[in-house]
Design brief:
alpha/beta; 2-enoyl-CoA Hydratase, Chain A, domain 1; seven-stranded mixed β-sheet; three-stranded parallel β-sheet
Length: 406
């Protein structure tokens, strides 16, 4: 997202280097003809992205995957998901690559999520797209979480929904003065997926993750770090410098060296409101039913509590109850993959049998009236049997990477 100057790097998948990508670097850029062997014995054809929605930038030992759909705020398509998975396999096998990074094209953000317009159309006229897209996306999320090479996510600007899935599972997560992070799914009749129930349920975070999941609130860098969704606060103006240093690391580099580099660029982060409100958040959002959380927030004599209450109650009652159930199950889960399996059941049930997802997307994206008519309309009308239905949907298998299956 940030602009830079200096020697251009090799940008595969585009006819020229994009102006909005940092171009700092030293030495000659790597180039390879299609008929010639590239570094590490890989042909250029293997490194050439197979969709214009994904670019691959090579500079030294750093390979940067670029989400290139800025007109849609880099929302993830099925082609993008499949191409990211393929490139991660190729880059893992390339001994000349020490580190993989992820960025977004344009000036607005890394990724606003999945392609919910396609999801809306598919739900209205079932075509099997969700049964293909979500398993592929979740497999990518799990692949990133266990990727053996250092994976650095530049979480600059808007990072929401599916954008969390391709970034917050990374080993190294950079947030900036422009970062806006959210898991807003309860506002469109869904649940925080892409491993969101795993990320937001870690015990060390207190209940900040529960608060974010049930309110869909957008937070900045400091709150993202406090909530376990980011690691390093680094001004976006330093991205070109970071890229240059990472590109100079030796091929045998490991995560400790990348951590050392990023620590050197880290700046003091601003105050975290969620940290300041932790006692209230933990007391209210630590309860095990939405009704109990509602009562605790109603009884709290604090502006933050009333704001959280009003925000939460504007969301789908069904989504709230299913999300809380998934979060509590995730806290006992052995691994991310277990949570992804439950999330897949929930989102496919929402697509096939719940009207709230279609209504939520209609109100937020299609008609934009911001007035969803949820069904059931109240928490009291959401039965236990209704919630259990989201956890028992028949699902296709998630094609996890072979390392996860062994």
């Amino acid at each position: 997202m940030s602009k830079g100057h200096g020697s251009p790097s090799t940008l595969l998948g585009a006819s020229r280097a994009r102006e909005d990508l940092p171009a700092r670097g030293s030495g000659e850029p790597q180039t390879a003809g299609v008929s010639k062997q590239g570094s590490g014995g890989l042909r250029r054809a293997e490194l050439e992205p197979r969709t214009p929605q994904i670019l691959l930038e090579r500079r030294g030992t750093l390979a940067t995957i670029i989400l290139n759909r800025p007109e849609a705020l880099n929302a993830l398509s099925l082609d993008m998901v499949e191409e990211m998975r393929r490139l991660l396999d190729v880059l893992e096998a390339d001994p000349s690559v020490a580190c993989v990074a992820l960025r977004g094209s344009g000036e607005r953000g890394l990724c606003a999520g999945g392609d919910i317009r396609t999801l809306y159309n598919s739900a209205k006229s079932p075509d099997g797209w969700p049964e293909v897209f979500w398993p592929a996306e979740y497999a990518l999320n799990a692949r990133i979480a266990c990727y053996p090479k250092p994976y650095v996510a530049f979480m600059d600007g808007i990072v929401m929904g599916g954008g969390i899935g391709v970034s917050a599972h990374a080993r190294h997560r950079i947030v900036t003065e422009r970062t806006k992070v959210a898991m807003p799914e309860v506002g469109i009749g869904l649940i925080p997926d892409v491993g969101g129930t795993w990320l937001l349920s870690r015990p060390a975070l207190g209940e900040a993750g529960t608060y974010l999941a049930l309110t869909g609130t957008t937070v900045g860098a400091a709150d993202a770090i406090h909530s376990g969704l980011g690691d390093y606060y680094i001004p976006s103006a330093r991205f070109g410098d970071i890229t240059e240093v990472l590109a100079g690391l030796p091929p045998c580099n490991g995560p400790r060296e990348v951590m050392r580099v990023l620590n050197a660029f880290e700046a003091p982060k601003p105050p975290s409101r969620l940290c300041e409100e932790r006692a209230l958040i933990d007391a209210a959002f630590g309860l095990d039913t939405i009704e109990e959380i509602e009562a605790a927030l109603s009884a709290a004599n604090a502006p933050f509590a009333q704001e959280a209450l009003q925000t939460m109650l504007s969301k789908s009652p069904t989504s709230l109850k299913v999300t809380l159930r998934l979060l509590r199950l995730a806290r006992k889960a052995e691994n991310l993959e277990e949570c992804l399996g439950r999330e897949l059941s929930a989102v496919l049930h929402a697509t096939r049998l719940s009207c709230d997802m279609v209504e939520g997307i209609r109100a937020a994206v299609i008609d934009k009236d911001r007035n969803p008519r949820w069904n059931p309309a109240t928490l009291a009308e959401v039965s236990e049997a209704h919630v259990r239905g989201f956890l028992s949907e028949q699902t296709p298998p998630i094609p996890f990477h072979e390392e996860l299956k062994s």
